[in-house]
Amino acid sequence: MNLRTLTSLHFCACFSGVLAEAIEPIMFIGVGATLGRQIYHYLRESCNSNWIDFNAKGLKADLDSKLFGQHIATRIILKAVNGFMTNNNPKKPLVLSLHGWTGTGKNYITKLIAENIYAEGMKSNFVHVFTATLHFPHQSHYIQYKSQLQQWVKGNVTNCERSMFIFDEMDKMHPGLIDGIKPFLDYYEKLDGVSYRKAIFIFLSNAGGDSIAQTALDFWKAGQQREDIELKDLETLLSLSVFNNNKSGFYRTSLIDKNLVDFFVPLLPLEYKHVVQCIIAEMKAREMKVDEKVADQVAKDLIYFPKSERIFSIKGCKTIESKLDYYV
């Protein structure tokens, strides 16, 4: 039975936590014990197929309908995640590095991936988010952070091999800290008895965003379509720019030097029409009546670059929720 069909079982959500806690210590004898364990695992998230079940069609549908203006990222994410999750014997963890300006969809992509792998989505106990300014705030403590990070990753993968780790604000992380988990991302069958090959590591960074935006602007000035931009136009430029940026968490990192990042995923700056799509999607999510005039007003209220042409939204879709509140 898949967890997503559990609604047919008439468990009251308000008592599920109480039931789970009550069932755990009470192990009935014989058949009762087996039944008790089954109910417990249905009520409490566990590292099994009831709670971790990749939905390839769902991910494709979400990327196609909810992520706007990102034809390169959509294609890479879908192929990378689908190929990895359907491989029963991967040789290494999946390692993705997402780069682009604020509001282009980096965090949103991780949310869509999580929601199509874990029944609990981003709330899953097997999805772990690290934010540089929150979890690693003091640059001088990075050696201590490195040790703690290693233990944290090891402990969580030991608990569930299908764990997902998200590292946000990589551009604000101490250079060298991320090298602490380099062995976990390599082609080792096991390290101290633990296999990391089925884990997913995702890095999010604004670093390289200016290079991506400049490439998109060059295409626009040359009269070329946005959709003509390909990964090959950006990937090498992107990896080199973050590798040589001494303010980036990837500065001179062995992750890049040893080619352990499977894909550098560029997120293109969003144009006016993409911002409008984001606003309309937000209206639908709030179950509001779609008002294109309001969407147009909100989109026009944002700041665009370059100032004269107003082509790309500086903050993408980052502030549309608060802007929409103002207009409605």
Please state the structural category: alpha/beta
- Summed over residues and divided by their number, the pLDDT gives a mean of 86
The neighbouring-strand order within the major sheet is: 2-3-4-1-5
Shape: globular
Low-confidence stretches: 1-28
CATH homologous superfamily descriptor of the largest domain: P-loop containing nucleotide triphosphate hydrolases
Encode the helix/strand succession as letters: HHHHEHEHHEHEHHHEHHEEH
Write down the Rg.
22 Å
Helix content: 40-55%
CATH class of the largest domain, please? Alpha Beta
Largest sheet: 5 strands, parallel
At the third CATH level, what is the topology name of the largest domain? Rossmann fold
Q: End-to-end span in angstroms?
A: 43 Å
- Helix count, DSSP H or I runs of 4 or more residues: 14
If classified by CATH, what would the architecture of the largest domain be? 3-Layer(aba) Sandwich
Give the total of domains: 3
| Beta-strand fraction estimate | 5-15%
What is the count of β-strands? 7
Name the features.
328 residues, 3 domains, alpha/beta, 14 helices, two-stranded antiparallel sheet
Please, could you describe this protein's structure?
This protein is α/β, with parallel strands linked by helices and 328 residues long. It folds into three domains: 3-43, no CATH class; 56-267, 3-Layer(aba) Sandwich (Rossmann fold); 272-327, no CATH class. It has 14 helices and seven strands. It has helices at residues 13-23, 31-43, 56-66, 71-85, 106-115, 132-135, 142-159, 182-185, 209-221, 235-243, 254-257, 272-285, 292-300, 320-327, and strands at 94-100, 127-131, 164-168, 200-205, 263-267, 304-305, 312-313. The strands form two sheets. A five-stranded parallel β-sheet has the order 2-3-4-1-5, sandwiched between helices. It has a two-stranded antiparallel ribbon with strand order 6-7. Strand 6 (304-305) and strand 7 (312-313) form a beta hairpin. The longest helix is centred in the middle third of the chain and has 18 residues, at 142-159. It is globular, with a radius of gyration of 22 Å.
